[in-house]
């Protein structure tokens, strides 16, 4: 399982584990969790980097409608994972 490390503006770091990735339209999304335990918190991240950029730049998807649509996609991709809302 791939692990991502993010550094906040205040200098703190957070680690997330990539559970799944998908592409919807022209946008890449990641479903990540802060733990590999069953009670981990999940986030959906959107890649906002331009096509010409070499590295991805992720932001949290906060729009509830967009989250619900993407959760449905991720649930289909992850047959053995139950995502609680």
Briefly characterize the structure.
This protein is α+β, with helices and mostly antiparallel strands and 85 residues long. Helix content is 16%, strand content 39%. The longest helix is centred in the last third of the chain and has 14 residues, at 64-77.
Throw out a few tags for this protein.
85 residues, alpha+beta, 5-stranded antiparallel beta sheet, 1 helix, 16% helix, globular
Could you outline the blueprint of secondary structure elements for this entry?
Layout lengths: L2 E5 L5 E12 L2 E7 L8 E6 L10 E3 L3 H14 L8
Antiparallel strand pairs: 1-2, 2-3, 3-4, 4-5
3D structure, described in words:
- Helices cover 16% and strands 39% of the residues.
- The protein has a five-stranded antiparallel β-sheet with strand order 1-2-3-4-5, with helices on one face.
- It has one helix and five strands; from the N terminus they run βββββα.
- The chain has one helix spanning 64-77; strands at residues 3-7, 13-24, 27-33, 42-47, 58-60.
- The protein is of the alpha+beta class.
- The mean pLDDT is 87.
- The longest helix is centred in the last third of the chain and has 14 residues, at 64-77.
- The general outline is globular
Mean pLDDT: 87
Strand content: 35-45%
Look at the helices and sheets and give the structural class.
alpha+beta
Oligomer description: single chain
Global Rg: 13 Å
Largest sheet: 5 strands, antiparallel
Strand arrangement within the widest β-sheet reads 1-2-3-4-5
């Amino acid at each position: 399982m791939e692990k991502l490390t993010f550094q906040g503006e205040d200098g703190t770091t957070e680690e997330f584990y990539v559970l799944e990735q998908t592409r919807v339209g022209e946008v890449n999304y990641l479903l990540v969790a802060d733990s590999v335990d069953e009670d981990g918190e999940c986030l959906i991240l959107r890649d906002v980097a331009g096509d010409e950029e070499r590295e991805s730049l992720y932001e949290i998807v906060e729009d509830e409608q967009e989250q619900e649509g993407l959760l449905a996609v991720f649930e289909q991709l992850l047959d053995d994972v139950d995502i609680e809302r």
